[in-house]
Design a protein that fits this description.
Region (Disordered): 659-684
Strand content: 15-25%
CATH architecture of the largest domain: 2-Layer Sandwich
CATH class of the largest domain: Alpha Beta
GO molecular function: kinase activity
CATH topology of the largest domain: Heat Shock Protein 90
Distance between the termini: 84 Å
Protein name: Histidine kinase-, DNA gyrase B-, and HSP90-like ATPase
Biased composition (Polar residues): 670-681
Radius of gyration: 38 Å
Number of strands: 37
Oligomer: single chain
Keywords: Kinase, Transferase
Shape: elongated
Helix content: 25-40%
Structural class: alpha+beta
Largest sheet: 11 strands, mixed
């Protein structure tokens, strides 16, 4: 270990220095403190143990509490990036004389450890290192103290001098670090504060103290316990801590985040008023209606705690674990731990090894788990207060797993357990994992289970007879998640808007009252019926709040393809309702909305893919495509239709549709592909192409809206052979020239729709034939190719629908054992003079008809079922094809 000697950090300036009144330079030298400090120790206990600049700042506030202050004023420069920026903490605590300052800078030593009660309070500090948290915030840390002897003293730690001694490869021990103590006058301080942001306010506090005493009014304290009896024999003492030379981490401090974090972490109530830039802090509490409250004490009716076998540790274990990490011991001997309780001086329970525990548990009507917990800590869960500080802001479960339940999102337990202080590690956010810790966790879980049981016991919210036949058939089903989510949506906003149809709601609060009154009278009012409607979006199912109806989107591909019979429609209604209520339940137990959105997106893709596997109407895709091409406000609908269309045409489609990416990549896989495998691509397609869809409110897409450079970049990045752009139409002029130059194929949406129609009428189009289109770079050329394709298909496929129907007419009245493709092909050759027709031609055509009119024509391998006369089949085909061009919507 390298030893560094004689590293001084004194400024050697005095009050007589006419050139400077900087706060870290005032006073006359009176004595020196010798400090020994390891640079690696400094880094570890500041940069690693304090997770944010806000958390490091909290240590200074805790020091004010330990000093017996009942007022702390925090002043932070508005522009922390300025070279003159400062952070100041002023308190009216007992402060430090010279002996106190020497103890302050005796690293890793704290006199508080031997005196846990000071000034009538249980003190927070015990390790003697909290001040080192400031290392991450600033280059200089200055203490200006007026102690009981009336002398004003200043000490400044210049961290930049220490930084010069750090080495990258070797720990440095600075054994002769001099911190000079200066004696200053009131005038020194007054002049120096002129250079500090809000220095005039701090000076006013020094001169007159706190003149607003309204904070002494006791407020309701959810953590319970007795208030501290502040005992101070002296007045006029104060401490001012100034951070200057703000470092990058300090500049990242956000005042509003600091405020919220402190409101949650330091619920001192009225015992110590904290102001940040002129605004009082108030204890963070959940603002929501409380259903029931439990006070920790005899009324809980808990006289024992059980430790399960897997979570019991030997008492001698001294493994340091975070609250989020639970390590199991090999020793497994479950225990029942007896606990006692009492009411004097306040309700409490006594837990072995921890002592008295106070507080409250509350169950709220609405979820309180939403919000940016990273900025202020979660509102729900366990809030464990040790000596006035919440020690588990980042872990509201306090290491207890499997708490995902509807009640958890509405549960808040505020518990004061000062006995945990002996188990806290130096970061004051981690615990030594001993048996006492396990006992305390078991106590927390016992309370939550008590609340959860109450929540689940509300039998009035179980459905015995639903609103219609579908609901009745499901038997007993809890609709509490639906009730909660509708109420929460009306109170604030929907966590997932796609779950709800909020049309027809004028007064949200009035609708909420109506909803709650209606469902409390009779649970069947929660869901009146399940109906099919056109939702004009991509949703599969949603809940219409105005009339309590579950809406199935009649235009969703899965619904279109699986709702041809009454039985299928009933099944779709059931699937839709189950999906909706499952999503409501997921939100109710606290699943993050963003995570649930991902699940819903994946489920929707599965539904759409299943619909494609059983695609019964290629024309339905074309209809959706033509309807969505002008719906630029919902561009994703056209993107989905294009993906469906390409899949139907026989391409393997990978959907992307993320920012900076194409809608997808389509690949052609004929057998064989005649492509050479490589190490990077062991199953190469014959060809692949990127595709982008551009909807437009107008007949043509503006040239500026089609970013060909981006299209080309997509093709190159995904190593595709071609690039395709689908739009309602394309502007004349430079676009076609640019498409030619950059080898991009522009296709009109109606031409893509015609390809689908050809597939229905003539059977599948060979992907080898489709490859020709990627040599065309003008939309008119593409349209002409599509037009000529129909002639090609007619010429090369002598088996038409008319010939097929005539063959069926010839077979009318005959009763073969099995109607197969060979039988029909033979009839066509014999009776209709289409001599080149083979069985495989019949199979191709029948598969197309099975897609178009599946209830009338089915095929399995080469066995065919015809469930109507030839004339009725012809009529059905005609109706389906006409619907493709029918713009009427109901």
């Amino acid at each position: 270990m390298k030893i560094e000697k004689n590293i001084g950090v004194s400024e050697n300036s005095s009050s007589g220095d006419a050139h400077s009144h900087a706060i870290e330079t005032i006073g006359e030298l009176t004595s020196t403190i010798k400090v020994e400090l390891s640079t690696r120790f400094l880094e570890h206990f500041s940069e690693q143990l304090y997770s944010s600049p806000q958390k490091a700042f909290e240590e200074l506030i805790s020091n004010s509490w330990d000093a017996g202050a009942d007022f702390v004023d925090v002043r932070i420069s508005g522009d922390l990036g300025s070279s003159n920026a400062t952070m100041c903490i002023f308190d009216n605590g007992v402060s430090m004389d010279e002996a106190g300052l020497r103890e302050l800078w005796h690293i890793a030593f704290s006199p508080k450890r031997d005196h846990p009660i000071q000034h009538g309070r249980s003190v927070v500090g015990k390790f003697g290192i909290g001040k080192l948290a400031t290392y991450v915030l600033a280059s200089k840390l200055t203490y200006i103290c007026k102690a009981t002897d009336g002398v004003i003293r200043r000490v400044t730690m210049d961290y930049s001098s220490i930084d010069q001694q750090k080495t990258e490869t070797q720990e440095s021990l600075i054994s002769d670090l001099n911190l000079d103590i200066y004696s200053a006058t009131d005038e020194d301080v007054r002049l120096a504060l002129k250079g500090v942001d809000a220095g005039d306010i701090i000076q006013d506090l020094i001169s007159y103290g706190l003149r607003d005493n309204t904070h002494y009014k006791r407020v309701n304290e959810e953590f319970g316990g007795e208030p501290s009896q502040l005992q101070r024999t002296h007045s006029g003492t104060w401490t001012l801590v100034v951070l200057s030379g703000i470092k990058p981490t300090g500049r990242a401090l956000k005042i509003h985040v600091l405020r919220r974090m402190l409101e949650s972490a330091l619920p001192f109530g009225s015992e110590m008023l904290i102001r940040i830039n002129g605004r009082d802090l108030t204890s963070s509490k959940a603002e929501a209606t409380v259903i029931k409250e439990w006070e920790i004490g005899p009324n809980l009716g808990i006289d024992y705690i059980e430790l399960d076998d897997n979570n019991n540790l030997e008492e001698s274990a001294d493994v340091v674990l975070s609250a989020k990490t639970k390590k199991k011991s090999s020793k497994q001997n479950g225990k029942r731990i007896a606990i006692s309780s009492g009411t004097v001086p306040v309700p409490y329970v006594e837990i072995p090894g921890i002592g008295r525990v106070t507080g409250t548990a509350r169950l709220f009507e609405e979820q309180i788990s939403s919000g940016k917990s990273e900025e202020r800590g979660a509102s729900n869960g366990f809030h464990v207060n040790v000596l006035g500080r919440v020690v588990n802001q980042n872990d509201p479960s306090f290491g207890e797993g499997n708490l995902s339940h509807a009640a958890w999102a509405r549960f808040r337990m505020a518990v004061r357990a000062d006995g945990l202080n002996t188990l806290l590690t130096t970061s004051r956010e981690q615990f030594k994992e001993r048996e006492e810790t396990k006992i305390f966790r078991a106590f927390l879980r016992r309370i939550f289970n008590l609340v959860r049981s109450y929540y689940d016991s509300d039998r009035n919210l179980d459905i015995s007879q639903g609103g219609d036949v579908l609901l009745k058939s499901l038997g007993v089903l809890s609709l509490k998640p639906l009730l909660n989510q509708v109420s929460e949506t009306l109170r604030t906003k929907a966590a997932i808007p796609e779950l709800f149809d909020e049309s027809g709601i004028e007064d949200r609060e009035e609708q909420r009252k109506k909803w709650r009154a209606s469902t409390s009278e009779n649970i069947k009012n929660a869901v009146t019926e399940v109906r099919y409607f056109r939702t004009n979006d991509d949703s599969f199912v949603k809940f219409r709040i105005s009339d309590s109806t579950i809406i199935i989107n009649k235009e969703h591909p899965f619904v279109i393809e699986h709702s041809h019979s009454k039985a299928e429609k009933e099944l779709i209604r059931t699937v839709g309702m189950v999906n909706l209520l499952s999503d409501m339940y997921a939100l109710d137990i606290g699943v993050e909305p963003d995570l649930l959105k991902d699940v819903r997106s994946y489920r929707d893709k599965l539904l759409r893919f299943r619909a494609l596997q059983r695609r019964q109407s290629g024309t339905s895709i074309a209809r959706i495509l033509l309807k969505t091409q002008h719906d630029s406000d919902n561009s994703k609908r056209m993107e989905a239709a294009v993906s469906d269309a390409l899949r139907y045409l026989g391409f393997d489609v990978q959907d992307l549709a993320k920012p900076g990416e194409p809608e997808g990549i389509a690949s052609a896989y004929p057998t064989p592909t005649n492509s050479n495998p490589s190490a990077e691509n062991k199953q190469p397609p014959l060809y692949s192409f990127s595709f982008d869809a551009k909807s437009s409110k107008h007949e043509v897409a503006a040239t500026g809206n089609i970013k060909l450079d981006g299209v080309v970049e997509h093709r190159e990045r995904f190593k595709a052979d071609y690039a395709l752009v689908i739009a309602p139409g394309f502007s004349e002029g430079a676009l076609s020239t640019r498409c030619q130059q950059q080898r991009v194929t522009p296709m009109k949406a109606q031409d893509l729709g015609r390809l689908l129609e050809y597939t229905v009428t003539h059977g599948a189009i060979a992907v080898t034939k489709m490859q020709e289109i990627f040599t065309l770079y003008h939309p008119d050329e593409v349209s002409k190719w599509v037009e000529q394709l129909e002639k090609y298909l007619k010429q090369n496929r002598q088996l038409t629908i008319n010939i097929f129907l005539n063959a069926l007419e010839s077979l009318k009245g005959q009763i073969p054992d099995v109607l197969n493709a060979s039988t029909i092909a033979h009839t066509i050759r014999r009776d209709l003079d289409a001599f080149s027709v083979k069985a495989e031609d019949v199979v191709t055509l029948v598969k197309g008809l099975a897609v178009l009119i599946p209830d009338l024509v089915q095929i399995s391998d080469s066995e065919i079922s015809i469930n109507a006369s030839a004339k009725r089949i012809a009529d059905a085909v005609k109706v389906q094809l006409e619907q493709l061009h029918d713009d009427h919507t109901d």
